[in-house]
Write a structure and sequence with these properties.
67% of the residues lie in helices and 6% in strands. By secondary structure, the protein is mainly α. A 4-stranded mixed beta sheet has the order 3-2-1-4, sandwiched between helices.
């Protein structure tokens, strides 16, 4: 279906179906930028602890190298492993936990927190080379290229703006202690990382806006789809069933009201009943009522009450019931059989008039 036909906004039902299939607007760059921000925040809070714990572990490692007998036994190896795991937990653990939490919050903010098992099912359309080529050569390619250029340009600009002004003051740092030099370089690197991270957040927001726009365009529906959905979901199942029953009852009442005006009722004789009328206004006799079982019995009863002739002809009754609808003329292949029945009815009516 052409995209030009999709002019209507997606209905809530359509959005829910798309969401259940995993079709949501999500930006990996926005999530990544928030993870970076969270990681830098965690580093700013735990930086001194990380440095102190790492330095202590490094000194202990150098001591073990100087005295190999400490780790030559199983107990020494277990102690070394426990010390390493504790160091990793104290240094990497807090930062990793914050990054994990920020990643979860970024995903929840974009697509919600309700899991969709259907999105885990394999979708071979996603690896279709034809659709993949369309996405590659479409507007998304231009946007992705501009986004990649923007990333490189922003990071380069942030680095240049942070480093170049400090070049003139490098001479003043000659002769400072290694610890002071390390702290200075660490502060500068952290400042550059902060500026780049906030710029990355801006890129992520733009990327999310673009993906949101594309998602809305893909969700758009045609007018016919909106009408079909309104008919399907506009009322509850109970109300739709009641409306169908009422419409069926009204149609049956109209059909029974037409039986007294029929020229003949052709029966099976008990299973089928078809009422025909022929007034010359149409090319052939018209079916005004038909039914089987209980409805057929009701048609026969109404016909008897109003003196409409009832003619048993099982093959013709079955053919008329299966091959015609109410309000239609009989098919051409049944002309001869119906004509014989009508001729019989007219002759019978003529004899009755003469006898009276």
């Amino acid at each position: 279906m052409a995209n030009t036909d999709r002019t209507e906004k997606a209905t809530p039902k359509h959005r829910k179906r798309a969401r259940d299939k995993g079709q949501v607007a999500r930006s990996a760059d926005l999530g990544g930028s928030l993870v970076v921000i969270g990681g830098l925040f965690a580093l700013s809070l735990t930086g001194s602890t990380i440095v102190g714990t790492g330095a202590a572990a490094f000194r202990e490692m150098l001591g073990d190298i100087a005295h190999p007998g400490r780790v030559a036994s199983a107990a020494g190896l277990n102690g070394l492993m426990n010390s390493t795991l504790n160091t990793i937990a104290l240094t990497v653990g807090p930062v990793a936990a914050v990054c994990l939490g920020m990643g979860f919050l970024a995903g929840a903010a974009q697509v919600g927190v309700r899991p969709r098992p259907q999105s885990l099912k394999p979708d071979f359309r996603r690896i279709n080379p034809v659709s993949g080529l369309k996405n590659l050569l479409g507007p998304n390619l231009i946007f992705e290229a501009l986004k990649a250029i923007a990333k490189v340009a922003v990071v380069s600009a942030v680095a240049v703006l942070a480093i170049v002004p400090g070049l003139t003051g490098l001479a003043a740092n000659v002769g400072i202690s290694p610890a002071a030099l390390g702290a200075l370089m660490g502060n500068q690197a952290f400042g550059i990382a902060q500026r780049a991270a906030f710029a990355y957040v801006l890129i992520g927001l733009i990327d999310y806006g673009w993906r949101r726009y594309r998602h809305e365009q893909q969700l758009k529906m045609t007018k016919q789809q909106v009408r079909d959905e309104a008919r399907q979901y506009g009322v509850s199942a109970e109300v739709r069933a009641a409306l169908r029953r009422r419409a069926l009852q009204a149609a049956r009442a109209r059909m029974m009201a037409a039986v007294p005006m029929a020229d003949v009722v052709i029966t099976n004789p008990t299973h089928y009943a078809v009422a025909l009328v022929y007034d010359g206004s149409r090319s052939a006799p018209e079916v005004v009522a038909k039914g089987k079982e209980l409805i057929a019995a009701q048609i026969r009863r109404v016909a008897e009450e109003h003196g409409v002739p009832i003619v048993p002809d099982p093959p013709l009754a079955r053919a008329l019931h299966q091959g015609t609808e109410i309000g239609q003329v009989i098919p051409e292949e049944l002309y001869a059989a119906v004509a014989r029945v009508l001729a019989f009815v007219y002759r019978l009516a003529g004899r009755k008039r003469m006898a009276s």
